[in-house]
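[job 0417] fold request received: Methionine synthase
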Amino acid sequence: MSPVAAPVVPDPARISPLPGLLRQRLLVLDGAMGTMIQRYPLEEEDFRGERFADHPRPLRGNNDLLSLTRPDIIRAIHAEYFAAGADMVETNTFSGTTIAQADYALEHIVYELNYESARLAREVADEYSTPEQPRFVAGAIGPTNRTASLSPDVNRPGFRAVTFDELATAYLEQVRGLVDGGVDTLLIETIFDTLNAKAALFAVQQFFDEGGRQVPIMISGTITDASGRTLSGQTVEAFWNSIRHLPLLSVGLNCALGADQLKVYVRELARLADVSVSAYPNAGLPNAFGGYDESAQEFAALVEDYLKEGLLNVVGGCCGTTPQHIAELRRLADAYPTRGITQEANTEEALEDEEKAANASLTLAGLEPFNIKPDSLFVNIGERCNVTGSRAFARLIRSGDYEAALAVARAQAENGAQVLDVNMDEGMLDSEAAMTTFLHLIASEPDIARLPLMIDSSKWTVIEAGLKCVQGKSIVNSISLKEGPERFKHYARLVRQYGAAVVIMAFDEDGQADSYERRIEICQRSYDILTKEVGFPAEDIIFDPNILTVGTGIEEHRNYALDFIRAVKWIKENLPGCRTSGGVSNISFSYRGNDVVREAMHAAFLYHAIRAGLDMGIVNAGQLAVYDDVPKDLLELCEDVLLNRRPDATERLVDFAETVKQKGKVEVVADAWRSLPVAERLQHALVRGITDFIDQDTEEVRQQVARPLDVIEGPLMSGMNVVGDLFGAGKMFLPQVVKSARVMKKAVAYLQPFLEAEKQGNARQTAGKILLATVKGDVHDIGKNIVGVVLACNNFEIVDLGVMVPLERILDEAQLQGADIIGLSGLITPSLDEMVYVAREMEKRKLQVPLLIGGATTSRLHTAVKIAPAYSGSAVYVNDASRSVGVAASLLGSAKDAYTQTIKDEYAALREDHAGRQRDKSYLTIEAARANGFKADWETTPITKPSFLGTKVLDNYPLDELAQYIDWTPFFHTWELKGRYPRILEDANLGEAARKLFEDAQKMLAEVIANKSLTARAVVGFWPANTKDFDTIEIYEDDTRQQVRDEFFTLRQQSEKAPSVHNIAFSDYLAPKETGRQDYLGGFAVTAGLGIEKLIEQYEADHDDYSSIMIKAIADRLAEAFAERLHERVRREFWGYDPEEHLTGEELIKETYRGIRPAPGYPGCPDHTEKITLFKLLDAEKQTGIILTENLAMYPTAAVSGMYYAHPASNYFGLGKIGRDQVVDLAERKGMPLAELERWLMPNLNYDPQ
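[job 0417] inference complete; emitting structure tokens
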């Protein structure tokens, strides 16, 4: 570590006003640091500086390092934010931990990095501070790039890439640096995993306990999507319950969402929190290129709604926000009052308020909150995950059968347990390892992880191991005074530091309390120590006054149950705020093996204990008898024993128990639904996607009704209505809906002969007829097919014309079929123009049929600006299948006129706004843009000659090898399950559907590989090449470079850039002819879709839309994986410019390698016509079987093609809009009519060619 100056001592007068200021006025936080850094044209040298010039790893992108190597930039950014009106700036330390810096091999400078970043911000803050507006520095503590709650390996759900201890150690060093550097507060932010945040809070408390200077703590979580949950699955309230154990200056939300989307979650947090609330959203959602378009004024208008509702004490900006955004927030902050805080945060003083303590809730959390209020009903704590209390569970854990052990936990949850007790105390077990493994596995099961956990052990080391695995707020069971008061206080403080509630056993230095008097004496003493000496909140204390076994025949045991019940009543009356609990099965241990008697005893005991005030109990949630259902004679016998009502009570109960004939418990089999009435069986099959019995059930209904059509319009449509309702409510997901449609289609197929016999095949009433088509020249249909399935599930009749459908056929069929709606789909950019042509032709034919627009390249803006003006009828953009039903219903419903007018008004406003934006944008001439192009240092740039020139074909490429390169995230997006793989598999909302879909995909992929039912083929080529006249790439016949074989024509950005930011074309990455350097260009075309038509035909013949869509999605993933694998081989062997490259799968997906493979039709090179030249050079159609349609889509659709660039600085970019001067120039260079070229480039033109 390099030496740093002595710690900067923050001025106490500057820190102390913060809590008061937050109650007086809104404080404004700064905006994005990363966004501002991106405005500087930084190269690798800027990140290295002199000090790291010889560092072995690339450092570009390590923004935190700029505090050491370019402090002038960081200082300037802080100053800009203060000048804009910010009250507080964050230090440049978002990745300032040893964990995050390990990616750059810079762990050794972490303290210095944080210290210098804090010192820099402190200096600037002091320069801007005035008595009227003091300025503050928040020490930014990011989440790291690892998660403690989730496994990065879907095949090892129990694995963790980082441990709690590793996180806490890393955070502790960061905190030291920040506080020594002079921060006023610590801001633990962008929390996507609450366990990471709890490790940070643990480290902060440890720093304070070790004598570090105490500064206030701010917390800010991140809601990742519309599910309203963090990435690790918690709801807002569960998150708040999990992190409120330390005194906080504020709690809030930031990042991932824009102000519009984040508001509902901030509102919920403001309702819950008894501390200040902060929000610093992104500048909207990212655009297609990862940038943010929301202007300062638009951002402020959305945030103003927060302030009108009085939700905030701190307001700022995250990704995409700039000093302009913060200046707007300053204006608003001066005009609105701060949020009122009605309660104080938990403090020792507040805990002395007995009335408040008595009314406080015990707040727990798993993935979801669980709040136990003073008037809450009895809480069932599931007991079966206990190796001491369950021989079966112990056997599973000892044998390592954790899958079956999880089933025990799941059964407890399904049977009504509200908290799950986990105990691994067994002599032959490594209890700490078993606890850690089991809790890690529970975290991967959302249906179990939604519950809070009770970590149960007599060994502190096992309890602590469990606490380090749980992101929610759990219960520790238990600690006691048996080792004396000092040890008791030590454990209690640690429990609090880990953020858990605690069970206190009635146990002290003299042993276990077994009388009423000893019970209340120990509980009173424990309560006083905890609340008065430790500062433990009374509502987080749970007393277990020892449920001991009765009915043993031993005289001293006769009052055990009665004394427990009396002690519970005394605790509730004398120890305000705390809760009571106990292990209920202990009471009946004498009757082990006799479930009838035991269950009756438990029911009777709980009835009396709950009336006395028992709040919760550890029970077998699946075997709780109802008090009123216990036979009267047995109930009387049990109560005689429990309440010690007669001296012979035990003998009488023993005699009865011997007469009881145990009834075997019959397990409910999985097919119990087969005993339901047939209409309900059909509904169950539809909802669950079960085809096994569909023919026989359909036939059974047909025999019961007058006409076969009645089967469809009756139980089948009733079932599909349930499916539609569940899908609309977010309780079913697209893969499940497609499976439901498969069941429906099979049922209808079975009925078809009967329908035709009665000529009623078209007689049923539907919600409307919708004609769907992928437009001319486009062969992509997965999205269209999914929309068709979803609409069919909602009683719309679908006429699907397929792919590459000419506009004449679309409109002719629509008129012939009497279509109520026409739906157009397309994926490639030329399809956008084709849709405009369809709209114009509809106008010519004077049609008034509503037009639905969808597909990957379509957008609401394009529909409003280009399609809607061409058609006087309704043209409506639908962004995903789930919304298609609502839009179609609105277009055909009774209020359709009002709906269509609303859409037209919205689109008119969009057009006006778009026109205004275009007027406000500045563009360079093509000459000026070329002058501002990227200029490489061609004297020093390394150029490697490929290992061969010409082309090479790779036929029958092994599919099992490609499967290892699949990026599964887009696969889930195809099915409209939004989230990143593998995290989506553990998503609390989507996880179950995602896991089932993934399981089906893996099964089909394995079959494809085993049967070789798809063929993967590729061609790759390399050619001598140089740039000519800035934007043209010449391809030469050979390395003599005397004869030009062909030319590629690149497009250059023309929008005006910030100083030192270039207007790029891909040709900038090749050496110009005049440099004399011999450069090379590569190209490729791959497919994994050969043979897919036969599979699709088979599935569709079997009415199996699910498998048809699945095989297309898998083939697409294999093609993309082939492109990724081929590019890897290009870098390492075929071109060989990076032979030592060894990247992980995740690094490949993130494209951390050197070189790029842009494809014609994508954002940087939207000119599809360049594909013609590429295919000619590769002889791709002959070599691979891929053909180009008239609109230059590739068929099979599971295909990828593009160019290879090897320049070390090569990067992807978005072209944006271009001017007419460049288009005219390009038309001349290509020898193409201007109007034709404009058609191909229409979405990128900054002018209207008409």
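[job 0417] notes: DSSP finds 48 helices and 33 strands in the chain. The CA atoms of residues 313 and 885 lie 41 Å apart.
[job 0417] exit 0
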